[in-house]
Amino acid sequence: ICFVTLLSHKDGYEKYTAWKRIWTSNGKSEPSPKAFMADQQLPYWVQCTKPECGKWRQLTKEIQLTTQIAKSYRCGMKLNNSTKIEVSDQCSMPEDLRVAEVSDHWWYSMLILPPLLKDSVAAPLLSAYYPDCVGMSPSCTSTHRLLGESNAVKMEHLKTPPTIAGMNKYFQPFYQPNECGKALCVRPDVMELDELYEFPEYSRDPTMYLALRNLILALWYTNCKEPLTPQKCTPYIIVRGLVRIRCVRETERILHFMTRKGLINTGVLLVNPDQPLLPKEYHNKSVIVVGAGPAGLAAARQLHNFGIKVVVLEAKDRIGGRVWDDKTFRGITVGKGAQIVNGCVNNPVALMCEQLGIKMHKIGERCDLIQESGRITDPTIDKRMDFHFNSILDVVADWRKDKNQHHDIPLGDKIQEIYKVFIQESGIQFSELEEKVLQFHVSNLEYACGSNLHEIRSIDYSGEEVQLTATDGSLWTAQKVLVTVPLAILQKGAIQFTPALPERKMKAINSLGAGIIEKIALQFPYRFWDSKIEGADYFGHVPPSSSKRGLFSVFYDMDPQRKCSVLMSVVTGDAVATIKNLDDKQVLQQCMTVLRELFKEQEVPDPVKYFVTRWNKDPWIQMAYSFVKTGGSGEAYDILAEDIQGTIFFAGEATNRHFPQTVTGAYLSGVREASKIAAF
What region holds the CW-type domain (predicted)? Predict the structure, then answer.
């Protein structure tokens, strides 16, 4: 006889059928009587919050566990509706013997059904998923799907990334169904490979792991200004039965793993040295970080917060590396190096801005192209040539798919080749202005791809400890060393390694290029460009010829509030060589000549202040960012990131294949290496 048939005459059957209806509407798993018992009938277990106690107690059947109860429960507390009455001396009562069994390795394998969390904080972010596929109960109001809505309404709902009230719009920790390519997020319904490696016991049924991991991520992104601890997570783990105890204990393991990997508890967190983020078994190592750029600082902060002893050595008289801000322009910060964040969603820079309470200004899409006659280029011409230029890049991408490194040629040469073939075969003739606009877009590509105190002299890793020698003879020793110097420094052999770096790594180092970009910033007595630019964040300069390409091709308005009068421009590609031997005044004169051509209809005043960067002459940087040389491949970034004997590690934008050429890439590489070092 069917078990359900037997139940049909019992008290509570109506409750079961109502639950079954809700479960079927929202979930994907079978609404079996066993699932009903686990979801609705088992008692809750809660832990005493007294530091000297911590015993687990079973609540009576009628009590619904809430986050507030879990945060404040004490042994003997009588929970009668909203009244909480604490009975003294109940902590001395022994704990139920079943609690100890929960920690046994075999206990989890005996579970008939995986735990599904009730009212998980992650629920609003996962509304497009079946809740029981991501570790949540389908019976809760918070997990009810868009039932009864038209497909059009559902599609409109999916267009907007789900969020939690008060959460930064750039925080999107989970992929949505059928979504791909979003940076730094996870599939809420699937374990990643490194998670399976760390937690193989969940490979058969990952539901419990996914429930806890998703909860932890959601809690972190709702408050990223404070370290997330297991104790802060516990009250939000709402599930019936003894399995709640197992979930709470597993949370500590999962949270420590996610912390080590840099998924949570990262950025500019201030962590009490007496309460490090990782347990003591990670603390027994010493690390030296060479270089205090974004990669080195990110790694050092992570390692310090983990509880690992770390020292940072920097050759220059400042930190930041290729991030160097000038704040002398009457309250406007002008970056001599990196300043623009490309892609804010899940970007660690956006995370750090949120932690520090710094607002990010979104640069508008409008960019008027001004000719040296002073005329603004017709937007239709710009759009036409932009489309043509991107079509050329698509052809290059298709051509590249079938070629190996031996058939590689410079990107600029290939663009010119395809462009000439197109002109010959199509018979289309572009005007002189259109040709100039095309050169502007090529110069922007060059902007993206580069162009043609303790100065460490040697690193000896032949012994049990690594020995670093500075140019002044100072000696430093550590068990692990993280090298974060720019690619150009490694290429020039400024640091001698003993033993020498493996041939494979040296080949990768030399297969990448060290590109140069220079900047000029100018402060004027007034904003002469406002009437023509009309509030745009930047404007373009159409070069009069290909020989002038890359020379002040874009001018950025550095004050989004439109109160100060500061412009910044860049020199890229072959144009860098043309200013290399000029002094700053000569570079300024060239820049002013361009501005006066662009704004011929008015008087352009002389600047009251300016600077010109000289990254190529900086002995400890010598570059802007890396690029793949002709004949090279992206694999070089991965090889550069490989450690040597678990002793020497490497970080920096040139070691990040997914995010090269960016502060984001440098920062993430530092977090990546901190994780590797902690795990060794």
Answer: 39-99
Query: Quick one: 675 exposed, middle or buried, by C-beta within 10 A (0-12, 13-18, 19+)?
Result: buried
Judge contact between 348 and 360, C-beta under 8 A: no
* Long-range CB contacts (within 8 A, 24+) of 363-367: 363/537, 363/538, 364/536, 364/537, 366/536, 366/537, 367/536, 367/538, 367/539, 367/540, 367/554
Phi and psi at residue 493, to the nearest 5°? 65, 30
Q: What is the pLDDT of residues 283-333, one digit of tens each?
A: 989 999 999 999 999 999 999 999 999 999 988 888 888 888 888 887 788
- Give the whole-angstrom CA distance, residue 399 versus residue 607: 47
Please give the backbone phi and psi of residue 131, each rounded to the nearest 5 degrees, phi first.
-60, -40
First to last CA, the chain: 58
How many whole angstroms separate alpha carbon 548 and alpha carbon 578?
Answer: 9
Which residues does residue 117 pair with via DSSP β-bridges, in sequence order?
Answer: 136
Interval 530-575: pLDDT, tens: 988 888 899 988 888 777 788 998 999 998 777 899 999 999 888 8
- What is the sign of the dihedral through the CA atoms of 348, 667, 680 and 470? negative
- CA 218/CA 222 separation, integer angstroms: 6
Q: What's the one-letter identity of residue 459?
A: I
Query: How is residue 289 written in tokens?
Result: 């970080």
Q: For the beta carbon of residue 2, count every other beta carbon within 10 angstroms.
A: 8
